[in-house]
Structures are given as structure tokens and as C-alpha cells.
Design goal:
Number of helices: 8
Low-confidence stretches: 158-165
Order of helices and strands: HHHHHHHH
Number of strands: 0
Mean pLDDT: 81
Shape: elongated
Largest sheet: none
Distance between the termini: 17 Å
Structural class: mainly alpha
Length: 165
């Protein structure tokens, strides 16, 4: 099994298994005529909508920020777990710094992570930022294309799964 698939299964597999188990149990209860699970399903859907809406609102507020330092402080104050979380934070900070035109700060953020030790899907985030920096800072289209091809190569197994479905 490709390493990206293994990584995604390790990250989201337990939550997906719990969701499937709860859905099957609720379906069995409803099939038996027990309607007490219906309010639980409605509460779960409402909870999901609330969490998703809150996350969306937080993301919208971040993208409305006009000062790069304030935005980066917000990113650095977010709680991410493990080395994947540190890499995700570095990706977000480097992406924001690149879009704000602060290229040295973007390189500093990217250099804080050892990208080669991470799963390929996370490595692709670093390559993506390097491609943006090559394009915006150096205005080197061939180098940006090289980084993007490397990014696509590392995420090929995930992309193939997404295209097939």
C-alpha cells in the first residue's frame, strides 16, 4: 500500500471506523423499530455543522487579516500535534508570508522543519511552498515547475485515488 494511503489511514482511520460503527448500530436500531436513535443522529449532525461552521468562521477571520505579523502570531498560537502539525504550521506561515511578499520570512518558516523525515503527503506541502517562492521571489518558472512536479510525484498515489473516485 502506498505510504500516502497508509498515512491517511493512520490519521483518519479510527474516526472513520467509529463513524461506520455508530451508523451501523443506529441503522440496526431503526430497523428494529427503536426510534430513540433518531434524536441522537440529529444531535450529531447539528454538532458537526456547528464545528464545521466555527472552523470556517475562524478561517475567514484569518484571511481578512491585513498585518502579516498578526496573522503569523495567530498561526503560531494554534495547537498542532506532532511533527506533522509543526510542518503544517510551517506550511501555513510560509504560504501567508509568500502571499504577503515577505519572502525571507517564508524561507525561515520552511527551514524550521526537516521535510525529508515526514510522510510524502506532508512533504508535498513544503515543495508547494518552494514552488510558490520560486515563482514569486525568483520569477523562475522552470524551477517552480520542477518543484510542482516533485510535489505531484510525492502525492501521486493520493491523486490517483481521488481521480478514480
Amino acid at each position: 500500500m502506498p505510504s500516502n494511503t497508509v498515512y491517511l489511514l493512520r490519521k483518519f482511520g479510527p474516526a472513520l471506523a467509529i463513524l461506520v460503527f455508530m451508523s451501523v448500530c443506529a441503522a440496526i436500531q431503526i430497523a428494529r423499530g427503536d426510534r430513540t436513535t433518531i434524536p441522537l443522529i440529529v444531535v450529531a449532525i447539528c454538532l458537526f455543522a456547528f464545528v464545521f461552521g466555527r472552523a470556517r468562521k475562524k478561517a475567514d477571520t484569518l484571511y481578512q487579516e491585513h498585518d502579516l505579523d498578526v496573522l503569523l502570531n495567530k498561526y503560531h498560537s494554534m495547537k498542532f500535534s506532532g511533527s506533522d502539525g509543526v510542518a503544517l504550521r510551517a506550511h501555513l506561515c510560509a504560504y501567508a508570508a509568500t502571499l504577503y511578499g515577505n519572502f525571507p520570512r517564508a524561507w525561515v518558516e520552511l527551514s524550521q522543519v526537516e521535510w525529508s523525515d515526514l510522510p510524502p503527503l506532508i512533504q508535498a506541502l513544503g515543495r508547494y511552498n518552494e514552488a510558490l517562492l520560486a515563482l514569486f521571489e525568483a520569477k523562475d518558472l522552470p524551477l517552480a515547475e520542477k518543484f510542482l512536479r516533485a510535489c505531484l510525484k510525492t502525492t501521486h498515489s493520493v491523486s490517483a485515488v481521488c481521480v478514480r473516485s
